[in-house]
Design brief:
D-Maltodextrin-Binding Protein, domain 2, 352 residues, eleven-stranded mixed β-sheet, globular
Length: 352
């Protein structure tokens, strides 16, 4: 039986998922399988003549391919998985749009909400009724499929839990941590949450003090940041996504997070192309990713579900965030430019 193998890293990756690899997971010994509850049979019949689903995604293949294999196995539709960064995917979509030759059906990215609204189909998938309100775009153009909570992380072998600062103000006084802290080279959502919570003037002072005292190193990529802290290169990060901290923790690394207020919240989103080459397949795909099955699969790698009826991995992760101030953030346009500029001025521009 064929085995799915990811291609070597490239800026963009185009993968056809092999349905045969999952036949043993979806079928009973008699060859029959009960249809999952998210699968609308009428929509599936309409999608069958389309035959294919084209996904543009910022999720790495190690997570993305196994998740979409479940969709392919349930529907019989072939999945084309094209992977790149958020910026690469958005740029490619805009170029295709200018030529009026879109080839994508679904975009899975933290940047879906940044696309021009007219490029996204307004849809209301049935499974969206079960996700948290913050993960639903009021205009039905996108839906959150994974929650990114912004909190610091630390190496549990290098820092004792009882020694952790209990506020950003306290963290900004930890001169003994200087040179042992890192952060991502851009963290606009985290900064925007601090500005929303403290006000710009106080946030400027606080963030400036954090950077001046801790002298954080800049690392490209939040997953790389989590791996650097988990690997002991740094004691802590000013911020990271809880889901990526968990991803590295689940691999066995000595890393964990600790929640400081405020906690920024934004989403890995999914949206359907308004001019999708395979429109019915696109709608099935969005509904699948919001379903219990899709959400549970994503927790395999520590991603946090947007459904309350799906447990985190490990269980109880969100208990540590309860009672804390959580600020939903969806940056785009001028607001994003301002937050990016402020982060470069106060943090990245002072990095050592």
């Amino acid at each position: 039986m064929p085995r799915l193998v990811a291609r070597p890293p490239r800026p963009l990756r185009h993968v056809r998922i092999a349905l045969a690899a999952l036949l043993t997971l979806c079928c009973s010994p008699a060859g029959a399988a009960e249809a999952p509850t998210w699968l609308d049979q009428k929509l599936l019949e309409a999608a069958k003549p389309e035959g294919t689903l084209v996904i543009y995604s910022a999720i790495n293949e190690e997570e993305g391919l196994p998740t979409w294999q479940l969709f392919e196995a349930a529907t019989g539709l072939k999945v084309e998985y094209i992977r790149g960064s958020d910026a690469q995917m958005v740029s490619r979509i805009l170029i295709e749009s200018r030529g009026d030759k879109p080839s994508w059906d679904v975009l899975s990215s933290t940047a879906v909400h940044k696309l021009p609204q007219q490029l996204l189909a307004p849809i209301e998938p049935p499974e969206a009724a079960h996700i948290i309100p913050e993960a639903r775009d009021p205009n039905h153009r996108w839906y959150g499929i994974g929650a990114n909570y912004d909190v610091p992380s630390y190496n549990t072998k290098l820092v004792k839990a009882g020694e952790l600062p209990q506020s950003y103000e306290e963290l900004a006084k930890r001169a003994d941590w200087a040179g042992h802290v890192a952060n991502n080279e851009t963290d606009a959502e985290w900064l925007a949450a601090l500005v929303s919570f403290y006000g710009e003037a106080k946030a400027r002072t606080l963030i400036g003090n954090l950077a001046a005292t801790l002298r954080p190193a800049m690392i490209s990529g939040h997953l790389q940041l989590a791996r650097a802290v988990g690997g002991g290169e740094y004691w802590a990060s000013l911020n990271n996504y809880v889901s990526l901290t968990l991803n590295v923790k689940l691999s066995g690394a000595p890393i964990d997070f600790w929640p400081l207020e405020p906690i920024g919240l934004f989403f890995h989103e999914i949206g359907a192309n308004a001019k999708a080459p395979h429109p019915n397949a696109a709608r099935l795909a969005v509904n699948f990713m919001l379903s219990q099955e899709g959400q549970r699969k994503m927790t395999t790698w520590g991603r946090l579900p947007v459904r309350r009826d799906v447990e985190t991995n490990p269980p109880g992760v969100l208990d540590a965030l309860r009672g804390k101030t959580v600020i939903p953030i969806a940056l785009a346009g001028e607001a994003e430019k301002k937050a990016d500029g402020l982060y470069k001025e106060l943090v990245a521009g002072r990095a050592h």
